[in-house]
Each structure stands twice: as C-alpha cells, then as structure tokens.
Amino acid sequence: MDGSQGHLLFNHFTAGAKLTVTVGSALTVTESRGILALRILHVAAEIYPLVKTGGLADVVAALPPALAARGLDTRILVPGMPGILNGVVGLKRVMRFGPAFGAAVINLRLGHMPDSGLPVYVIDAPFLYRRSGNPYLGPDGRDWHDNHRRFALLGWVAAHLASGELDRRWIPDLVHCHDWHAGLAPAYIAQSPVLPTATVFTIHNLAFHGLFPLDCHTDLGLLTSGAMQSGIEFHGQLSFMKAGLVHAKRINAVSPSYAREICAADAGWGLDGLLRDRGSDLSGILNGVDYRVWDPGSDPALAKNYSLHHLHGKKICKLKLQAELGFRPSTKTPLFAVVSRLTEQKGLDLLLGALPALLAEGGQLVLIGSGDPRIEAGFRAAAAAHPHSVSVYLGYDEPASHRITAAADILLVPSRFEPCGLTQLYALRYGTLPLVRRVGGLADTVVDITPETLEDGSANGFVFDQIDVAALATRIHQACALFKHRSIWKRIQQRGMAQDFSWDDSAARYEALYRSI
Predict the structure, then answer these.
(1) CATH number of residue 389's parent domain
(2) Same domain for 509 and 496
(3) How many structural domains is the chain composed of?
(4) What sections of 192-249 are H helices per DSSP?
(5) What are 400-439's pLDDT values in tens digits?
C-alpha cells in the first residue's frame, strides 16, 4: 500500500483506525484488439439476472457487454448481495481489508457474469450485504438503517480501484457510476488531488436522491467544509445523488427528453438549478434493449415462440394466459397489461380511475407489480369485483413479465414522468402496442398513431399528453376501436417489432462520451 495517492485516500477515511490489507489472487487482464483498450469500470447496486428491482439492473447487465463488443476493456463493481455472490462465476479474492464502514473484514473478489462472461468485482462484506430480500429494504418495508454505509462502501471501493490500491493489475481510466447508490464514487475520487480518473454519473431516476442525515458524514470519511460540503448537502441532509451530480466530470440521463425535462423546476426535484449550471456537461443517451433476453423468437418463458413474420404464436400466448387467469379466451378481446412499480410516478392511480372505461370497452387487464399500498389495494379490489376481466399479481416475477408482455395486445405506461422506460421497448419487440404518456423516454420511443403517421409508416403506439383520467380513458377507447381493424393493427405490430432499440447505437454514444473527457 505504498504511493502518496493511496495513503491519502485510505488515511483520510480511517482517521486513526487500524486498517489491514492482504493481497490475494486476481484474474488475468487481457488486451483488446491487440492494444490496451480504454478501461471502464461500471459501478451499480443491481445487475440482471442476479439482483433486480427495476430497469437499472437490465442496463447494468447489457451496456457493459455492448461496450466490450466495441473493444473497450470493461468491468463491473457491485455489492456482495446474496444473489450476486451466488451467481457470479469463479470468484477469487483480489484484496482483503478492513475494518471499514462498520464491517470488520471486507474481501474484494473478482469473477465473471454467468451469461456475458464479463469480469465483475464483488464487495464481499457479509455484515453489510448478506441480507435476504430487497437489497434496500428490511423485512418491515423500511430502508435499512445503515444504507448510507452500505452504498458509501460501494463508491469508496470504486475510488480505490481507480487509485490502483485494490487491484494493481487493472486500473480503470474512467469510472461510470449508476444512480444514487454509486453517487459517492465521484466525490471520493474528487477528494484526492492526485487521482486523474475521469467519472461519468448516469441519472436513472432523479426522484430518488439517496438522502441521509448530514451527520452521517462522520461514518463516511467525507470532508464537510467548503466546496465539498456544498457538493453533498441538500437542504440539511446528505445527498448521494447530489454528490454524483456535483463531482462527476460528465452527467447523463437515460433519454434525451428526460435530460431536458430535469433542468426545469417541475421535474428537477430541487436539483434543476444545479443541472442547468452543469448544462454543458449534461447529455441524454437512450437506454437500449438486450435482445438476447427479450426476443419472442427464442424466449423460453413463452407458451409459443413467434416472430415478425410469423405472429401465430402470439395468439397462442394470449389464449393460454387468458385461460390461466380465468378470463374468457378470445383473440378478439383486447388484453391490456401493466408491468410496473405501482406508484403515482407510473400513473397507476390514473389507470384505476380509467379502469371502468377499459372494462366498458370489453377489455381485460392483467397487472404485475408492487408499490404504493393504496394503489395495490385499489387493484386488488378491482380484481375481486371483476375476477373474469382483471387479474393482479402483487410482486415480481421475471418469467411472468415476459409471458404477460407476449400475451398482451396493449401495454399501459401512463407515467407522470419516465426517465427512459424499458417496458415499452420490450412491448414493441413482442408485438404489443404501448399506450403511454408523452414524457421522457416514452416520448423518444413511441410514435403516436395518427392518420399522418399511419400514412408514413412511423406509428408504433398510442400517446396522450394531459395528466388526467379522461385523457387516458379517451386513448383506451381509441385503442380498442383500432384493435378491431386487424390488418392495420398487424401492420403497426410489425413496425414495432422491426425497430432496433438494441444497445449498439447507445454503446457507440457512450464510447464517444468517454473519449470526450
């Protein structure tokens, strides 16, 4: 552990505490395309299929391999949740250190993802991470009391990987931090005056700030004076999100429209002024879809696979799901679906208000998700009142979400705000027309069905603007009316299925962003 920058970072955190470090084994670093490639470390709290609560996990699983395919030397750093420790293949110890952040012993391990084979660093700290269930919440549904330590450690390890102290065989040129969980990584890196590592911070959802009492800084080894304090303090609290926004070299949001929207007061969650000030460093890059996972032609979860030119399998998927749910099986009945967190952000309270209109049209609704207890209760009551038309599964089930997306005719995403949205992109590939509010990534990906867009062939879904029940109900009525015109519907389905929202273009844009720093 020699080197001035290493001692600076470690000594600042430990502040007199005894710290022991033991070097272990590490995987061999390979060169890409005959030359040493740009080295990128992605830092995140989730990764599909090992730990997933939302779209963040899908992005972290798909973007790094897409970058690796472009020749970038890409690795991932994640906390050692049980699902990750059990799922990452070939874990070997790189470094043993501690005590830190309340954990007596921490092992940094290196293995690879079971699907993509991409190298993954795992922070094995049982005291902090080895907990069952939701990675953020305890059994009582409340945030773990030590989340500030759990996710500060994630950023802290990223900074020490950047310094070369934890793995001398692989030192990243750039650290890419995903959402508030990794927000302290740019702050720790910026705290060292000699660490040259570039940082990118991606906003997946600005609504979640990662807020903690300001006095938690004493647990985290952060300076609390001058510019450093102003860079982490948000209305008397410590904000992991703000730390990332202030200290990263570049900021990006997960769609171009969302990048513009968050600079306005009504969508900026109190950080719009900061984002406007950093406007020249802010960009929007649309998320992509991993078509290895979301492909109706090969998806193992489906009752029958199908493709763009052979859609018969989609009808089989629909009839089978209708029968399983106790609905009347019929390809002529419009089947609506929701695959979402049940929150006001997602506009699911609007859907509760528009549900009578949907049922009056003869439609059926299948919903999978969880969230706000009041919204959950509303949909449970609707399912009890209409057992042959409304089905509600409160929870998360990845294969079920694939089956529902394949079986449905229309996917409902009436969000108040939507950073990117992935479900509408999955729906398009599965021949399910999205019905969305014109906001964020939904506005960037769904082209409203109008006479003009039908004529030029760009239409792929239904769009409404106002945040009210009547606007949603009107679009549901129009969708049901168009559903009766099978030839037009099929043409729009095939248009959506043919669109390419893979990660190829987005990965190229991220590479350009990296090289611009």
Answers:
(1) 3.40.50.2000
(2) no
(3) 2
(4) 217-220, 226-230, 240-247
(5) 999 999 999 999 999 999 999 999 999 999 999 999 999 9
